[in-house]
Target: YbaK/EbsC family protein
Amino acid sequence: MRAPLGSFEHVLPAPEALDLLTRPVADAVRQWRGSVPAQDLFHVDTDPQWADTATFVEHYGPELLARSANCVVVAGKRGGESTLAACVVLSTTKVDVNGAVRRQLGARKASFASMDTAIGETGMEYGGVTPIGLPADWPVLVDAAVADLPYVLIGSGTRRGKLIVPGKALAELPGAVVLEGLGVSV
Model:
């Protein structure tokens, strides 16, 4: 089987790769709903040593950079309340935490969540966090540029492997909000 982007040796439809995913991601694939069929989500096996975006594109091909997205966990705070959310932006941009995120969450202050919080709350590996399979009550903020891609490369919940999914599938995730300008140039 050939992936819709990149040239990966091991490609499976995500429903056939459940044992390669973390429990929350596998559960989300099993319960998948939306206009994009679960069979159109693909898992590609990749070496964990190349999981970080810069080394990943260096190893697997620079053409993937413009079609890759990062998912980061942020915490918005207002008074004594804290709200966790996920932000999905193109790998060529950074999350506008103090602008778009803070406003969308109605927070007085927003910052990146600690590694312990990100992995503890998502049940995923650091460096592999994906918007698929996050806690149901989390806002999932998706940059419009990501949602517009025919296919985008994202984390799979583990450092070994990535998911390739239609951008519109991310826009249909539970709690998803598509925002213009969530990702800003680096």
